[in-house]
Specification:
Blueprint (H helix, E strand, L loop, with lengths): L17 H46 L3 H15 L4 E8 L4 E7 L10 E3 L4 H9 L3 E3 L12 H6 L4 E9 L2 E10 L8 H46 L3 H12 L6 E7 L9 E9 L11 E3 L1
Antiparallel strand pairs: 1-2, 1-6, 2-3, 4-5, 5-6, 7-8, 8-9
Length: 294
């Protein structure tokens, strides 16, 4: 492999002798060996740093007490390792059709309110289709960021590396490595490093989401079981309502009413009556006994 050349000049006309050429070749070989040794050492140190970083991230992600803690550690690791200006992670919500900011290496005042559209957003569509990182050198003029260029430039982003977070073939999120000071071309080594970390983060997100779903399912099952036992033992409408409110009442629920059709009302003038009522802070709702007609 040719690394380069060693050029030796003489301002006077000079015919190089064989001995001089042999000496210069020996010096050139020595320089080449030194350059190669230095390059291998740098690659070895870089590889060791990456391996150490990957191990530390893997251990930290598996022991983080919450998903927010795990994602914050994740973006800060990339921020330090790539000497980025910002690293932000987005999680996509298919039901509502947008992505929300889940973590930032450098917290911003508008970070928690940022919402990225999924539909009509070329960067999202490209990540979902290709399922590999995308580099954008010029945010303002690259068609890939057409749907989010205004938001990104508003945050001062000039160049960005977008990395998908995948669970199987499903795009659940992405993170961006931002350059805000100058435009930046990301190296293949940097991209590969981020891809490796992305696989670890995706697995962590999936584990936390499955755990939350399991906990929610257990709580719902427990509430239904408790309600069914209370309802089965109830003798009056108030006792039935009390069993329901004890099981499903949540911080955002202030009132529960048990409303029954009035069997004595006529088909032409149907009526309903509040048989029992529960209100936060009151043993009985004042609406109990109320009767309404159509």
């Amino acid at each position: 492999e040719v690394l380069g050349m060693l050029e030796v000049q003489d301002d006077r006309q000079h015919a190089w002798t064989d001995e001089e050429l042999i000496t210069l070749q020996a010096v050139s070989d020595q320089v080449a060996q030194s350059i190669e040794a230095a390059r291998l050492l740098a690659e070895s140190e870089s590889s060791l740093l990456e391996t150490t970083t990957l191990y530390e991230v893997s251990r930290a992600l598996s022991t983080a007490p919450t998903l927010n803690d795990a994602l914050e550690l994740f973006v800060k690791t990339i921020y330090r390792r790539l000497q980025a200006d910002q690293v932000a992670l987005i999680l996509f919500d298919e039901e509502h059709g947008y992505g929300t900011m889940a973590a930032e290496a450098v917290p911003t005042h508008d970070g928690p309110t940022v919402k990225l559209p999924m539909h009509g957003n070329p960067s999202y569509e490209l990540l979902a289709e290709q399922q590999r990182p995308i580099t954008v050198y010029d945010i303002e003029h690259d068609p890939v960021t057409a749907g989010i260029a205004e938001m990104l430039t508003g945050r001062g982003v000039k160049s960005i590396l977008l990395v998908p977070l995948l669970v199987g073939q499903k795009l659940i999120g992405s993170f961006g490595v931002d350059s805000t000071q100058t435009q930046r071309r990301f190296t293949e080594q940097e991209i590969t490093f981020c891809e490796t970390l992305a696989r670890q983060a995706s697995g962590t997100i999936e584990r936390y989401q499955l755990f939350e779903q399991t906990q929610t399912s257990l709580e719902e099952t427990r509430a239904l079981y408790q309600a069914s036992r209370g309802i089965a033992a109830a003798q009056t409408p108030n006792e039935i309502l009390q069993a329901v409110s004890d099981s499903v009442a949540a911080p955002h629920i202030d009132r529960v009413l048990l409303v029954l059709n009035d069997p004595d009302s006529t088909p032409t003038n149907p009526a309903i009556e509040v048989a029992a009522g529960w209100e936060r802070g009151r043993p009985v709702s004042p609406l109990t006994g109320s009767r309404w007609t159509a």
